[in-house]
Design goal:
The chain is α/β, with parallel strands linked by helices. The protein has 2 domains: 5-233 and 430-454, Aldehyde Dehydrogenase, Chain A, domain 1; 238-420, Aldehyde Dehydrogenase, Chain A, domain 2, CATH 3.40.309.10. The protein is 38% helix and 20% strand. The chain has 14 helices and 18 strands. The protein has helices at residues 26-45, 48-64, 66-77, 81-99, 136-149, 164-175, 190-199, 212-223, 247-259, 279-291, 311-318, 354-357, 372-381, 396-405; strands at residues 5-10, 17-23, 109-110, 115-123, 126-130, 153-157, 183-185, 203-209, 229-232, 238-241, 271-275, 327-330, 344-346, 364-370, 388-392, 410-413, 432-433, 446-454. A 7-stranded mixed beta sheet has the order 12-13-14-11-10-15-16, with helices on both faces. The chain is globular and about 80 Å long. Bound molecules: nicotinamide-adenine-dinucleotide. Nicotinamide-adenine-dinucleotide is lined by residues 130-135, 139, 157, 159-160, 190-191, 194-195, 209-211, 214, 217-218, 232-235, 266, 359, 361, 387, 427, 431-432.
């Protein structure tokens, strides 16, 4: 008998242990996959209207539990209570949105000679969803909701650091009447449970959100079985501010576009590109905005930024701000227990400075000047990442030219919005493969089957 793998789940704002969980090993993972496989045939045959009803009941259960889910995320991930409430609402909305899908999972009828040709969107079977620690609730929901709606059974592996809200979502699904085995939450280590999703032949699709390095290994592993993958990976997104922009608004919002969730956001606009002629004006406006970011107890309604997720992650982030780093200005952070790191602005930085090229995933932003549209695009695109970005200008034509020119999947003009459950989300280049959310997400959880029926006598 091997010893159980016990994991202490911490509150990153206090460093206190919230609970201790037993992580699944290989045997438990294989057993969960077997349960999911056994549940598949029944789930795919649930009539579309009934599957829709069950998903709506699941969304309603999440809605009724929002405060508890949010409080759990505040404690487990250090998210501010405002963000955590949004995240619980987002999980509800995503499930509700895809509850409409079972009754709209249309095939096509294609004109052919000698008969009738129709297509069906068939579910894949067991889907494994691997979730990171930065947005545990929404990212779990973005995978599980369309997968279930399409008739698949799902196993979610939350990140080791943040399993609690995913576990609660699993309980709520059962309470709502979703049959046993259809949705399972399996806390475990990435290289054990996550890797088993890759190697087990009965897992027919892997949805992975996390680092680019692990995403590449998942994709390579899935190639062995020609197993489909969706990858949502890292980012180093540009916030491009032109001289003709509403500079005050661009500067006031820029800190929140990178320091939200303490910068632990794959869409963080962690490179601010400012047109040279307004660079000094922008920096003068940015400084008070950065000092204004309220960092502290995430349970306090007024707090805008909480701690980092772990001591190890804080050490990694701090590595980008060594002694002598070009700190233009920085905000404050509490002293004492908790994995705190102050909002930090680095400038001037070179284009090959690692703080400018690598994903920091913490509250550190770099600012560089540019000269004109072509230069802005050249700098914005000189990265292997391509997830999101913002463009600030009052010229509509320029906004569209630059939006078309930036090699990224999710852009916003005169705002920093990235994710809406009803619009597609995903990355160009090494930021990912495939799209989540929006009207087409079910394509990623179904195979198209073509059937020809002869009408000949
Ligand atoms: P990570 O890659 O270390 O872990 C992500 C998940 O993968 C965790 O559940 C982990 O247990 C699992 N995992 C780790 N090694 C594995 C392996 N060998 N096989 C299978 N699964 C494995 O990343 P992280 O530190 O948890 O998250 C931070 C990263 O995620 C950042 O780079 C960030 O940009 C990225 N991210 C991207 C998006 C997006 O939508 N594009 C969203 C959130 C996070």
């Amino acid at each position: 008998m091997t010893e159980p793998d016990r994991y202490h789940v911490l509150n990153p704002a206090t460093e206190e242990v919230i609970t201790t969980l037993e992580l699944a090993g290989l045997a438990e993972t294989d057993a969960a996959i077997a349960r999911a496989k056994a549940a598949f045939d029944g789930w795919r045959k649930v009539a579309p209207a009934d599957r829709a009803r069950l998903l709506r009941a699941f969304a309603a259960a999440v809605d009724a539990d929002r405060e508890r889910l949010a409080a759990t995320e505040v404690a487990n991930a250090g998210h501010t209570i405002g963000n955590a409430r949004w995240e619980a609402g987002n999980a509800r909305d995503v499930i509700e949105y895809y509850a409409a899908a079972p009754e709209r999972l249309f095939g096509r009828q294609i004109p052919v000679a000698g008969g009738l040709d129709v297509t069906f969107q068939e579910p894949l079977g067991v889907v494994g969803v691997i979730v990171p620690w930065n947005f545990p609730m929404p990212i779990a929901a973005w995978g599980l909701a369309p997968a279930l709606a399409a008739g698949n059974t799902v196993i979610v592996k939350p990140a080791e650091l943040t399993p609690l809200t995913a576990l609660r979502l699993g309980e709520l699904a059962l309470q709502a009447g979703i049959p046993e085995g259809v949705l399972q939450i399996l806390p475990g280590r990435g290289p054990v449970v996550g890797q088993r999703f890759v190697t087990h032949p009965d897992v027919r699709k892997v949805v992975f959100t996390g680092s680019t390095a692990v995403g590449k290994s998942i994709m390579a592993g899935c190639a062995e079985q020609v197993k489909p993958v969706t990858l949502e990976l890292g980012g180093k997104s540009a916030n491009i501010v032109f001289a003709d922009a509403d500079l005050a608004k661009a500067a006031a919002t820029a800190p929140y576009a990178v320091f939200d969730n303490a910068g632990q956001d794959c869409c963080a606009r962690s490179r601010i590109l400012v047109e040279e002629s307004v660079y000094d004006d922008f920096m003068a406006l940015l400084e008070p905005a950065v000092h204004g970011v309220r960092v502290g107890d995430p349970a306090d309604e007024k707090t805008e930024m909480g701690p980092l997720i772990s001591a190890a992650h804080r050490a990694r982030v701090a590595g980008y701000v060594p002694d002598g780093a070009p700190v233009a200005f920085r905000g404050s952070a509490p002293e004492g227990p908790g994995f705190w790191f102050p909002p930090t602005v680095l400038a001037p930085v070179g284009h090959d400075d690692r703080a400018f090229t690598e994903e920091i995933f913490g509250p550190v932003v770099t600012v560089v000047p540019f000269r004109g549209e072509d230069d802005a695009l050249r700098i914005a695109n000189s990265t292997e990442y391509g997830l999101s970005g913002s463009i600030w200008t009052s010229d509509v034509g320029r906004a569209l030219r630059v939006a078309r020119g930036v090699e990224a999947g999710n852009l916003s003009v005169n705002s920093h919005s990235s994710v809406r459950y009803s619009t597609p989300f995903g990355g160009f280049k090494q930021s990912g493969l495939g799209r989540e959310l929006g009207p087409d997400a079910l394509n990623a959880f179904t195979e198209t089957k073509n059937v020809f029926i002869s009408t000949e006598e």
